Amino acid sequence: MLRFEILAEQGAARRGRIHTDHGVLETPGFFAVATRAALKGLDAASARRVGIQALICNTYHLELMPGTEAVAERGGLHRFMGWDGVAATDSGGFQVFSLRHGQVADEIKGRRRLPALAEEPLEAVRLDEQGADFRSYLDGSRRRFTPESAVEMQRRLAADILFCLDECTPLHVTREYTASATERNLRWARRCLDRYQELEMASTQALYGIVHGGIHPELRHRSATGMAAMLFPGFGIGDCLGETKQDWYGVVDMVVPLLPRDRPRHLLGVGEPDDLIEGALRGIDTFDCAMPTRIARHGHALVFGRPRFRLDLTTAGRAGEDGPIEEGCPCTACRQVGRAYLRHLHRAGEMLGISLTVEHNLCFTARLMERIREAISAGALEELRREAMPVSPA
RNA sequence: GGUCCCGUGGUGCAGCCUGGCCCAGCACGCGGCCCUGUCAAGGCCGAGAUCGCCGGUUCAAAUCCGGUCGGGACCG
């Protein structure tokens, strides 16, 4: 059973706690991404040790492998993967629409435009009112997700928090397309909620509705009020958030006031350090983001004082500089080894380099969340924002 | 003394027999950029070689011929 309490507020920002059957997530809080029931490159206990309180896994990926039934037979995600903290499952909506051909994820993020998408944005996924047909990226087999089946799958996974199946619209589609998707997502949310209630899942799991509407204020308004009218224990803000940070600031600024104050708000897929602060300032309670773990695998450590908060470990230390990634960081790497060693590990392709860097980036993110929470209690979130301002490339 | 292999960017190789599609390809390395509900321990871009050297044949040679230098194998 999810219970949300607010401990302190500063403007739109609030500090609180999400209580679940598997412990507490302090908010503003961060879900580390464990798509296939694994933090890539790091064991869950190590993540916990550096302050990670919650993981988010992916229904789409787990349904394809090993199957949500298989996870259920092992007692659900927590027991299956040996995680005793808070766990969430994303519905897989994002994957259904991003894993077809090419890099539609880029398109949803506005990173590039696929001309072929302009008229028929999602042709490789057969989408109808009932649900979505797609091909497994693993074996090409045909699969079908419906709002109801997505809830059932997530019931089997048995995470503390689950999300409604939704369609994510790319940035460069017509307003009309996004409008009709927004309406359909509202209908799908209703169906998810109905199934969730029929199955009497509320005592153990919390279903979040996801606000859509792309970058269109009227559609966001429509979606937010529509979602808020349904009895979801929490809400996500998803869909295409635009091309720039200013775009999503605007979306969040207008959506948050429309959502019930007493329920948690989760901003899907956002998580650069400055984003976490900006989101918290705007009343976001939880975040999830693959970036910290992903860039770690590619040799980048999160730090303050570097452009985009990234230190390229494959080059850092080349000029003889050594020392920990970040002075005072309690992660294993910062306590035990220097940049020169990490540089060597990444260049040599040693997986230890990945593990240590993933741990550091999660530690960095968890510590930043802690600073955000303390700042809210102290009414000093604006100061933290100034302090942690991004550095422009020299 | 004789026979035979090899010599191509930083490294390892491909191309050579059947000359032109090679101002030379691949891998790794190197440099830069990228990664925000993870098909991502990944992706994109770039720098870098007058093909050991000299000469010849030819419209045209990394590719054929002669010589030469260097490395290696084997036979005596």
- Classify the helix fraction into a percent range: 40-55%
Widest sheet: strand order? Answer: 4-5-6-10-11-12-13-14
Largest sheet: 8 strands, parallel, barrel
Low-confidence stretches: 114-123
Multimeric state: single chain
Report the mean per-residue pLDDT as an integer.
91
Protein structure class: alpha/beta
Number of helices: 16
Coarse shape: globular
Radius of gyration from the alpha-carbon trace, in angstroms: 20 Å
Work out the strand percent: 15-25%
Count of individual beta strands: 16
Calculate the terminal CA-CA distance, rounded to whole Å. 49 Å
Model description:
By secondary structure, the protein is of the alpha/beta class. The chain has 16 helices and 16 strands. It has helices spanning 44-49, 59-64, 68-73, 77-81, 93-98, 104-108, 147-157, 175-198, 217-228, 245-255, 273-281, 291-297, 332-336, 339-348, 351-378, 381-387, and strands spanning 3-10, 13-20, 23-27, 29-33, 54-58, 86-90, 126-127, 132-135, 142-145, 161-163, 206-211, 234-237, 265-267, 286-289, 300-302, 310-312. The protein has an 8-stranded parallel β-barrel with strand order 4-5-6-10-11-12-13-14, surrounded by 6 helices. It has a 3-stranded antiparallel beta sheet with strand order 1-2-3. A hairpin with a 2-residue loop joins strand 1 and strand 2 (13-20). The protein is globular and about 60 Å long.
